[in-house]
Design a protein that fits this description.
The protein has helices spanning 6-15, 24-37, 41-46, 53-65, 69-75. The protein is mostly helical. It has one domain. α1 runs antiparallel to α2. It starts with 5 loop residues before the first helix and ends in an 8-residue tail after the last helix.
């Protein structure tokens, strides 16, 4: 993900809405576009090959900040976050 132009990355991240129950489809489309831009779409969808630690950390942070507080409390348990 480091090879991405910082301006394009910032714009792409800003375009991803905060995930709420009513916008899952839009959120999924935009987060998948981010994965594709970073060259990790297949890794994320298939779970293989594993992401390197840097990409994993970057994507973990992006996903967590794009979850509403309600969605976060439903979907993420503190013990399961490994960023």
């Amino acid at each position: 993900m480091q090879e991405i132009n910082p301006t394009i990355l910032k714009t792409t991240i800003e375009a991803i809405p905060v995930l709420k129950e009513e916008n899952l489809s839009s959120w999924r489309t935009r987060i998948t576009a981010l994965f594709k831009l970073g060259g990790v779409k297949d890794n994320m969808i298939n779970g293989e090959p594993a992401l390197d630690d840097t990409d994993n950390t970057i994507l973990c942070v992006i996903i967590l900040v794009k979850l509403s507080a309600t969605t976060h409390s439903i979907m993420v348990k503190v013990e399961s976050v490994d960023c």
